[in-house]
Write a structure and sequence with these properties.
alpha/beta; eight-stranded mixed β-sheet; Rossmann fold; 18 helices
Length: about 550
């Protein structure tokens, strides 16, 4: 089921824009339910996604708002995360103000518990109840050790070896706490997550990038005992007996006002937190006060299938609308740098395809993924300002031009490197170019992701790796760019293969309803092989050295 379901207890997703003296940033959050407001604060380096099961259960009693911590998930990072945990607490209070919260409860898990405790100490008049599930209270020697060993930098490597390290690091965290101390005393009593769950955690870790350690470090370094000493909010500090932080609960000082409890299991811990928060409810929420603005922002719109699609806006807010669509397996975020080279007269709207980037996946029972995707794009067109121009990269060009035609939007469409290939080449790509990339328990599939993306910059098609397939251009092989592309492909796992397979099942060269209204641009990446692959397809009229130059054809 999609995250944007019509069910009342199914969380919807939103962005709120916060303007402060330190700058403008967007916070992504999930919301569900009715009644008194309760903030749900996740652990690091995850996002509000981990709160989804809790939100479906607790929405019967609360209005739930679960923000992505700044720098995690889809929330912009803080200007200076080095300020420590207090900065995250202030940022959470700014978020509460932006969504119209007055008095509210807080449930926090691990890092979220530390942030919640700091916020309750900072603004006791705003917090009616606090439930901390797993609150870290390190002794001085433990604090020093954690800061020294727990948070090594995650630096992309040219060979992708850092992906295997990150996978093993997350797997080890389920086996030992701290993860780097591989001894009997540190062994955890819990199930090891399956490969699908580990992959989702890996995506969250890689998405936070350079910021993955910021909230972690803040929680380790912060003086939470001082917050507890000042605490006047009704508070419960609890942990499951299987939580490695259960051993920290006896460390609470006897003079602390917080109730403390070790529950027999995770379900009992959540039940106790729920009862505590329900006994000390906040106020119903008010109205969100901020609106999108600036030269770059994101919004979520209905996708026409009960879910939500994410749109990335950039350029002049009052400029000429331009719809720009990425290729399957990519994301709008990766197009942002290329879009920055376009003239300032454009207001550029870049959707994430369904199942890509920050957009919801389409329902699992969609019989025809191409048709369902076109329906989503039509819905986006009807919700967006009337556009006179649209453009799409590779197969994205076919989708955006056809969606514009179906929506009755007479636009000038630019197709950059479209797959206008003859039948035998389309069949070859469908059998060799769309590997399943199934998550493996040991993480070995990540090397396949990395080298697929890297070879795509060196060969066309990427899977041929022969002299006649060498791309005649300077390859863009920067390590961080490779990682961004791998993350986009990880996020779209399954969807991009199925979508591209459906598109390549059709012969778009003969699609007269689309091509006469469109212009085609070729980059040097494909111009050298386009003629061999297309046969009777339209002759390439203009070649450009790279994508940003090809988009100049929109002038």
């Amino acid at each position: 089921m999609s995250e944007g379901s019509k069910m009342s207890n199914q969380p919807s997703r939103h962005f709120v824009t916060i303007r402060s003296p330190s700058g403008t940033r967007q916070v992504h959050y999930r919301r569900s339910g009715h009644g008194p407001l309760l903030l749900l604060l996740h652990q690091s380096p995850q996002s509000s996604r981990e709160m989804m099961p809790l939100m479906r259960d607790w929405s019967r009693s609360f209005t739930l708002a679960a923000p992505d911590t700044p720098g995690y998930g889809l929330s912009d990072p803080l200007p200076d995360p080095g300020e420590g945990l207090a900065a995250f607490a202030r940022a959470t209070l700014e978020f509460a103000d932006a969504i119209g919260a007055r008095r509210f409860g807080i449930y926090g898990f691990h890092t979220g518990a530390s942030i919640g405790m700091a916020l309750a100490s900072m603004a006791p008049e705003r917090v009616t109840a606090l439930a901390c599930n797993g609150l870290i209270l390190p002794e001085p020697h433990e604090r020093a050790e954690l800061l020294d060993h727990y948070l090594p930098p995650l630096v992309p490597r040219w060979d992708g070896a850092h992906l295997g390290w990150a996978w093993a690091r997350l797997r080890e965290q389920a086996l030992f706490f701290p993860w780097y101390r591989r001894e009997s005393a540190a062994r955890r009593d819990c199930d090891l997550p399956g490969p699908e769950n580990l992959q989702q955690s890996l995506i969250e870790l890689l998405t936070s990038g350079d910021h993955y350690a910021s909230a972690y470090r803040g929680a380790f370094a912060h003086d939470t005992r001082a917050d507890l000493a000042r605490l006047s909010t009704p508070a419960l500090v609890i942990a499951s007996a299987h939580d490695p932080l259960a051993g920290h609960i006896p460390r609470l000082d006897g003079g602390c006002s917080a109730e403390r409890r070790i529950a027999p299991d995770a379900g009992a811990a959540l039940a106790a937190a729920y009862a505590h928060l329900l006994a000390n409810p906040g106020d119903p929420p008010g109205r969100a006060t901020s609106v999108p603005g600036g030269d770059r922002w994101r919004e979520l719109v209905a996708d026409g299938h009960g879910g939500q699609a994410c749109l990335l806006h950039t350029g002049a807010a009052d400029g000429q609308p331009l719809l720009l669509l990425h290729a399957p397996g990519s994301a709008a975020e990766l197009l942002a740098a290329e879009a920055g080279s376009l003239p300032g007269k454009f207001h550029i709207v870049m959707p994430d395809l369904p199942g890509h980037g920050a957009s919801d996946r389409l329902p699992g029972d969609s019989p025809d993924l191409v048709e369902a995707t076109l329906g989503t794009l039509e819905s986006i067109l009807h919700q967006s300002p009337a556009s006179t121009r649209s453009a799409g990269i590779e197969a994205g060009g076919l989708l955006v031009a056809e969606a514009a035609r179906r929506a009755g939007r007479p636009t000038t469409s630019l197709l950059v490197d479209p797959p206008l290939w003859k039948a035998e080449y389309r069949a070859e790509w469908r059998t060799q170019g769309l590997p399943p990339l199934t998550p493996a328990w040991h993480g070995g599939h990540l090397a396949e992701y990395w080298h697929l993306v890297r070879d795509s910059c060196l060969f066309f098609p990427w899977y041929r790796r022969s002299r006649d397939a060498i791309l005649q251009q300077v390859p863009a092989l920067e390590d961080r760019l490779m990682q961004e592309r791998v993350v986009a492909m990880l996020q779209s796992h399954g969807h991009w293969q199925a979508l591209l397979d459906g598109l390549l099942a059709q012969d778009w060269r003969e699609y007269t309803g689309l091509l006469p209204a469109s212009r085609i641009a070729w980059t040097n990446a494909q111009a050298s092989v386009a003629g061999k692959r297309m046969s009777e397809a339209p002759e390439p009229r203009r070649h450009f050295p790279e994508l940003s130059a090809a988009l100049s054809a929109l002038e």
